[in-house]
Design brief:
With 386 residues, the chain is an alpha/beta fold. The protein has helices at 18-29, 51-54, 70-94, 112-128, 137-143, 165-178, 289-302, 346-363, 380-385, and strands spanning 10-14, 33-38, 105-109, 133-136, 153-157, 182-185, 190-192, 199-202, 205-208, 211-214, 234-245, 256-259, 262-266, 272-275, 310-322, 328-333, 336-340. The protein has two domains: 10-55 and 166-233 and 324-385, FAD/NAD(P)-binding domain, CATH 3.50.50.60; 101-160 and 235-321, 2-Layer Sandwich (D-Amino Acid Oxidase, Chain A, domain 2), CATH 3.30.9.10. Helix content is 30%, strand content 24%. Helix 3 (70-94) crosses helix 6 (165-178). The longest helix is centred in the first third of the chain and has 25 residues, at 70-94. Bound molecules: flavin-adenine dinucleotide (FAD). Residues 14-20, 37-39, 48, 50-52, 54-58, 187-188, 215-219, 223, 239, 241, 275-276, 317, 319-320, 340, 342-348 line the site of flavin-adenine dinucleotide. The site of flavin-adenine dinucleotide has 42 residues, from helix 1, strand 2, helix 2, strand 11 and strand 15.
């Protein structure tokens, strides 16, 4: 970038999900002035449930059976490996425990056909150098007795951890404030980009800054004032989840369990989260009977004892999805950056995304490893020329 650059610029961040907050915290920790604008939960009819709040918090870099884009895999690993230091720094600054649990993840096969697929995934990950172990049916039963009647084999991933995303959001908000940042509960209706300093505005307010970061999750492309050619092509993919608790308060599982039917996430509180549906229904709010039935059916198929557990919470959120399944991270012009489209991996990818955007603003350029995700790949002119 050719512009003169202040070492402590003022940055306005649209969106207070994990992506916007992580970026804001990273910048505030490096001495920048930051303002985060977020409409807040349930502020609108129909709710605006951030994906981050709804998330399961899996830092699942290696659970895929199918090959993943190379650059994406590298970014997932980079971000996953950054999580322990990120969580430690966040807890030390905010005083809020974020429950990073390091028991690892089991990817379990529930049928003979799935065992064959799991063997293929194991071989592929072995070739990639992924730390993993193969668990036979007996190994699984010893490691997780609750899976004794369902899992025929499993891949154990010792480095794929989990975190409590709701605690992370609280910690990030506190940490930003402690570094002098401001979080404003406001709805931004539009942005003004045709001036020296970009500006966000809403009903009766406006906020201008040296830089503007657009990180409004699945809603990022709704903003007026963003040129049509650069609207991030993000769509909502709804996810429903629920949580269960055993009547005796006991814990059903020690590890995250990932299967073709869904996943189970044991929390320190004894709750087990059951996730998640994946629905192309726009911003249709609410949990549905069908969604809950499919989650409970899957959960009981994996751990039959869940049939006797109490359902203690149900919820939903909207994942920000892109056409190629990859995030959109990078400059839009000399003063505006986009960070959205993290789809199923926004919790996992938050530390790396924050690192990339902070480096872009403070050092003038994006790091090389994030270049495959820049927004130009969707520009309408480029797409039309293809
Ligand atoms: C059910 C479910 C389970 C998931 N599980 C996992 C998981 O285990 N691991 C993982 O890595 N990822 C998971 N994800 C995906 C992950 O949650 C998302 O990728 C991530 O949270 C996206 O973060 P974000 O900050 O971009 O968006 P969001 O968290 O949606 O935040 C965007 C924020 O911007 C605000 N906003 C938008 N527009 C405006 C406006 N105009 N004015 C003011 N505020 C605005 C919204 O209110 C919202 O608070 C899951 C998602 C769902 C739904």
């Amino acid at each position: 970038m050719s512009l003169s650059r202040s070492t402590t610029p003022h940055v306005a961040v649209l969106g207070g999900g994990i992506v916007g907050l992580s970026i804001a915290w990273s910048l505030a920790a490096r001495g920048c002035r930051v303002d985060v604008v977020d409409v807040g939960r349930h502020a609108r009819q129909g709710g605006r449930d951030s994906a981050s709040w709804a998330s399961a918090g899996l830092l699942a870099a290696n659970v895929n059976d199918e090959p993943v884009d190379d650059a994406m895999r590298r970014m997932c690993l980079r971000s996953r490996d950054a999580w322990p230091a990120f969580a430690q720094h966040l807890e030390a600054t905010s005083g809020v425990p974020v429950e990073l649990r390091r028991e690892g993840t089991l990817v379990a096969a529930l049928s003979p056909a799935e065992v064959t697929r799991l063997e293929q995934a194991y071989a592929r990950h072995d070739a990639l150098g992924t730390p993993q172990s193969w668990l036979t049916r007996d190994d699984v039963a010893r490691c997780e007795p609750a899976l004794a009647h369902s899992a025929l084999a499993a891949r154990y991933l010792p480095d794929d951890h989990q975190v409590d995303p709701r605690a992370v959001l609280v910690a990030l908000r506190d940490a930003i404030r402690m570094r002098g940042g401001v979080i404003r509960t406001l709805q931004a209706d539009s942005v003004l980009l045709d001036r020296e300093r970009p500006c966000m505005r809403g009903d009766g307010w406006y906020l201008e800054a040296d830089y503007l970061v657009l990180s409004g999750g699945a809603w990022t492309q709704e903003l007026a004032g963003v040129p049509e050619a650069w609207r991030p092509p993000v769509r909502p993919v709804k996810g429903q989840m629920l949580a269960v608790e055993m009547a005796d308060g006991g814990s059903l599982l020690q590890h995250v369990v990932f299967t073709s039917r869904g996943y189970l996430v044991p929390r320190a509180s004894g709750r087990v989260l059951v996730g998640a549906t994946s629905e192309e229904c726009g911003f249709t709010p609410g949990v549905t009977a069908g969604g809950m039935a499919s989650l409970l059916d899957a959960a009981r198929g994996i751990v039959p004892a869940i049939g006797g557990a109490r359902v203690v919470e149900t919820w939903f959120g909207f994942r920000p999805a892109t056409a190629d399944g990859l995030p959109i991270i990078g400059w839009r012009d000399e003063r505006v950056l986009t960070a959205t489209g993290h789809f199923r991996n926004g919790i996992l990818l938050a530390p790396a995304t924050a690192e990339a955007i902070a480096e872009a603003i403070l050092e003038g350029d994006l790091p090389d490893w994030v270049r495959p995700f820049t927004p130009e790949r969707f520009d309408s002119a480029l797409l039309a020329a293809r």
